[in-house]
Design brief:
Distance between the termini: 24 Å
Number of helices: 9
Oligomer: single chain
Largest sheet: 4 strands, antiparallel
Radius of gyration: 23 Å
Helix content: 40-55%
Order of helices and strands: HEEHEHEEHEEEEEHHHHH
Strand content: 15-25%
Length: 354
């Protein structure tokens, strides 16, 4: 197993890459739109290293969480021609959207590696459990699930997520392909006393991609799945199927990564330890990067989505929201986010000791 210090270093590097890619998205589009960037920083708190004497200062800061791309006139009025607030609506929207979009690009590129090294998981049934809900509905091995209650399905894992999010007692309208023809049936999930859950009764072993083109296709599908999973998780949180205690922050993610690294190392042959540990880390990076992209696009003050909302309001009304009002709303949003981070931090710590 990897040592504790090495695992902490790996986790810091992983978060650093994801944050760097996000902030680099803002940075590169700011430069493309001739917006003045005062500082590009990775990490928070006091600076450890600074460089750059021209327009932009670059820095690494001591706390390995977060980062920022500080643009002129971003949160205050500025007469500078290169100020963020003095640029066109499309320019400002592109800069704000670029951060989350670069997270999706990172997730896509990493997914290519996973789809190449691992099996892809199209929603094709490789096994039907005898006397299960699926068998009673007439499903057979080799059937490809197309949709559940009208919701498009493109990976086998979406079947499990659908079962978790929706009422298991409700019948499910299933559209599937068999021998090139589309069919439709109704599945009534069966309660399994052993697992204490409602079961569909289907399995899929996945398969290798046929060529690089299919790897690219399923890499896009993987990003779609991660984005969809994030929204499903939020839905579970707001509908009570998940609680605030299920939230996980950097400490919880780090602990989870530590367990994943140990498990991957323990289950691998000596010559494959590095490769399998790396692939597991990449898998987690895909999940976190896609999640970060989605969360930043939510219309929450202080996040990219909240700032995008202000610009869209300007586009509709033709008037800019006064900077002092925008700053007040973003300030309140920032305080609430900090309180949420504190809650999640202590929630993570309590889980470690429980």
């Amino acid at each position: 197993m990897l040592g504790g210090v090495l695992k902490i270093l790996v986790i810091i590097i992983m978060f650093g890459i994801i944050v760097f890619v996000h902030e680099f998205g803002h940075f590169i589009f700011a430069k493309m739109n001739k917006i003045k960037v005062n500082e590009f920083a990775i990490g928070m708190g006091p600076a450890i290293i600074k460089w750059g004497k021209k327009e932009t200062q670059y820095s690494f800061r001591c706390l390995p969480i977060g980062g920022y791309c500080l643009m002129e006139g971003e949160s205050e009025e500025s007469e500078d021609e290169g100020a963020f607030g003095n640029k066109s609506i499309p320019a400002r929207l592109s800069v704000l959207f670029a951060g989350p979009f670069f997270n999706f690009i990172l997730a896509f590129l990493l997914s290519i590696i996973i789809c190449h090294e691992y099996a892809i998981d199209p929603p094709v049934l490789s096994k039907i459990v005898p006397q299960s809900a699926a068998e009673e509905a007439g499903l057979k091995e080799g059937d490809e699930i197309i949709s559940l209650n009208g919701e498009r399905v493109m990976t086998f894992r979406e079947i499990s997520i659908f079962r978790m999010v929706n009422d298991p007692a409700e019948p499910i309208n299933v559209v599937y392909m068999r021998d090139g023809e589309k069919h439709e049936t109704t599945v009534n999930l069966k309660y399994d006393a052993e697992t204490e859950s409602y079961m569909f009764g289907v399995y899929s072993m996945g398969r290798e991609a046929k060529n690089f083109g299919e790897e690219l296709k399923y890499s896009l599908i993987e990003v779609r799945f991660q984005i969809k999973s994030t929204f499903k998780s939020l839905k579970m949180l707001f509908t009570g199927k998940a609680s605030a205690k299920d939230l996980m922050g950097p400490v919880g993610i780090g602990h989870m990564m530590s367990d994943v690294i140990d498990e991957a190392a323990a289950q691998s042959a000596p010559e494959n330890v590095f490769k399998n540990v790396l692939l597991n880390i990449i898998n987690i990076m895909i999940l976190i990067s896609a999640n970060l992209g989605v969360m930043n696009l939510l219309p929450i003050p202080a996040l990219d989505g909240g700032r995008i909302l202000f610009i869209l309001a300007e586009a509709v009304t033709g008037k800019k929201v006064p900077k002092e009002k925008e700053a007040l709303v973003n300030g309140i949003g920032f305080v609430l986010l900090m309180l949420l981070m504190v809650f999640v931090f202590f929630n993570d710590i309590s889980k470690l000791f429980s």
